[in-house]
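User: Fold both of these, please.

Assistant: Here is the first one.
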Amino acid sequence: MAFGITRKELKAWKQKADRGEIAFLTHYWIDDRFPGWTSVTKVACSDMKKLVSWGRNYGLKPEWLDCHDRYPHFDLVGQTQYEILKKEGMLKQLSRFRVLDKL
């Protein structure tokens, strides 16, 4: 369940992924496997080859893809989330959810 985003933002993420573009969506998220982290960035694309290639550029393995719904995606959390969003010029997504305060 995504918290802290609007339906408009979710719709835009889905549309971008459907067009075969790499789409980023950061939202509040709590998972016991990642104590202390309160957000996740979902990176999706309908073009699986493109998504896998994008992930490899950041050391992400294809088996880490979440393919349980219509939008295959990587879940970025913690330091990996920060490093990738920094390189992509998207730290604004993390500041919105106060993740930068924890680094």
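And the second sequence with its predicted structure:
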Amino acid sequence: MLSEEKQELIERIEAEIENSVIDPELGVDVVNLGLIYNIDVDDEKNVHIRMTLTSMGCPLAGTIVQDIKTALKDLRDFGEINDVDVEIVWNPPWDKSRMSRYAKIALGIPD
């Protein structure tokens, strides 16, 4: 079980990503699209993010990974986190069911 402090840090990391990292093709943040599968922070405050993309051949993978690292820069600069590692995975495959209600409304997809 996560400590309350670690859980709050993970929630802040997720909020920073949600507020800053927009999928350039869809215009919705990667959190609400359901692309972030897991965020973990180890005891040395290193962050590991498991995520996917909407398609395997996405030419913007490098851009999105860099956008995530940039979004977390302030947390790094203030010593709240250290290294950020973003792992792109393809299993489980992403589908529209992972999207939040907000993302579905924004994209005109029936719930």
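The chain has a mean pLDDT of 94.
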